[in-house]
Request: fold
Amino acid sequence: MLLDKHGRTINYLRLAITDKCNLRCFYCMPEEGIDWLSKKELMSYEEMLQACGVLVKMGIEKIRITGGEPFVRKDFMPFLNELSKLQGLRQLTITTNGVLTAPYVPELKRLGVQSVNLSLDTLDRNRFLEITRRDYLPQVLETLEQLLHHGIDVKLNAVVMDGRNTQDILPLAELTKELPVSVRFIEEMPFNGGDNHYTKLAWDHVQILHSIKEKYSEITKLPDPPYSTSFNYKIPGHKGKIGIIAAYTRSFCGTCNRIRLTPQGELKTCLYGKGVMNLKDLMRAGYTDSRLGAAVREAVSNKEKNGWEAEKNSMGLPILNASMATIGG
Ligand code: SAM
Ligand code: SF4
Reply:
């Protein structure tokens, strides 16, 4: 088991397999001038499999593949196939923007992927173009249809942005009427690859709930499952659920069970913290699995108590100016 010094069991890895993406969501990365990682800087699939093998042996039970956009990395599906064979791995999930995903859905089902997080910030094609700087809404909706058709659990992730898509909160919430999906509204975080940060978050979780309640006063609170990052709700009579993720407010840190591996192999024990060690460099330096495991155990035991502490400990480093695509969301 992987434990931190606060007594939390760490059993969830978010693995960002690429920093590249076919969208340019303005809350995640700038439109131009991005310094993409070179092939040499990226972890190879073999290195990822080795690292995941070590981590799963140490108690990681769930791996979420993210990025960047996982489906833009060549040979992603063969890698997923290999990963799905790891003994001890109980849950393999993916976060995707859904642009290239639809044709792979039957294969995801076959590999045992039970749930997919699909990013969808608006149902309006023009606003989708404004937010993502690309005109791919139909492809994303096709992915949603395919996922539901193949019986894969879907969580729709919508980042709520002041002045951009707050008019989409209700239409997105209304999707839960007919669809058995979980629509999750996420507070906008500062990780947009630039330094244009707001000083106060206008649309926090309280405001998001308030705007849903204006139409659905009957919305009811559901119990939050262990380790849930969202406050969960249901509109009576609707098939799906609603979640609100206080990602900026950081109210879920107390029960955090996760670590992250960035595309270049940095192990992050907190989203808001700096990388604590680079697994790719250690593997390339010839570390055996047991040495790697010992180094990880030590690093994880020192996991920060919460995002505020991690941010404080990273003082001097431009953590908040990173793109979410280089951290993995
Ligand atoms: N490309 C995939 C996607 O968009 O689903 C996976 C990577 S993306 C970085 C993972 C998640 O992070 C997405 O749901 C995205 O909406 C979210 N995200 C990105 N930047 C964010 C920000 N500044 N604040 C809050 N969520 C953000
Ligand atoms: Fe790409 Fe996902 Fe970032 Fe949008 S949020 S730019 S889809 S990595």
User: Anything to note?
Assistant: The radius of gyration is 19 Å.
